[in-house]
Structure formats: C-alpha cells, structure tokens
Amino acid sequence: xxxxxxxxxxxxxxxxxxxxxxxxxxxHVYTAASEIANxxxxxxxxxxxxxxxxxxxxxxxxxxxxGHRLPNAYKDSRxxxxxxxxxxxxxxxxxxxxxxxxxxxxxxxxxxxxARQDExxxxxxxxxxxxxxxxxxxxxxxxxxxxxxxxxAVLQ
Length: 156
Fold this sequence. Notes:
By secondary structure, the protein is an alpha+beta fold. Helices cover 36% and strands 21% of the residues. The protein has one domain (4-113). The protein is elongated and about 85 Å long.
C-alpha cells in the first residue's frame, strides 16, 4: 500500500484503504478515517509525554489493533485490523493496514521509538529522580565526603 498522510483532506483515501483491507467485515475493524486520526493523535500525545522534541519525532512507529478484549466465553475468532502509523517530519502517515484473526487479544497499541528517541525519553525519566546514596552529579555521598576530607587536610 502507498503511504497516506493522515489529514482531513485524505479521509477518502484512508477509508478506501480500510475498506479494501476489511472486505465485507464491519464489526471489530477500523472503518472511518476519524478513527485513524484519533490513533495518530494518541501517538503524538505519547511522544509529547516522553518529552521528545517535535524535531526528533520523525521515525517513530505506532501500531494499533482494532477491537476490544472479549470474555473468555467468546470462543470464535474474529477479523480485526492492525494499522501501522509512521511519524514523518510534519505528520503521521498510515503506512500499513492488515487484516488479522483475533480471539481475546485485540485492542492493543504499541509505540516503537528510534534509538535517539529512546535516549531522550530515558534522559527525561532519569532527570526526575535520584538514586539513593548518590548526589545529583551521580557520585556517591561517600566519595564526596572522602574528597572533602582530603581537600580539608591539604588546606590545613
């Protein structure tokens, strides 16, 4: 499939791609461009929560599987969609729509980051806490005390 930029002006193309994938299925599948736009907005929100700057968001992937979890008593499989969105320089693009059979494992979403995006997210996370027994610089309190004792002894 040819990648489609997720914008309101491309709604017809997005819905055509979904319809081609779905065939006659209408339940448990994505059918509207607005559903895909909502998925893209959720993916963008997740990147923002990780404090990844807009200039570094390109290359992220977001996968979403339609449908919801069903009770274990639901014994039959059902047709669902799996869509793959790619964050490019200015927007999210629909790059793949697949039809899959699902039992009780539908309705999942996954964000996939580049190595650079991972570094940014981890750095943001680490800025929010300190390890017990270490100063903000990463040195242990014992090492700092030892260095201060040596410095005091030298200066006397």
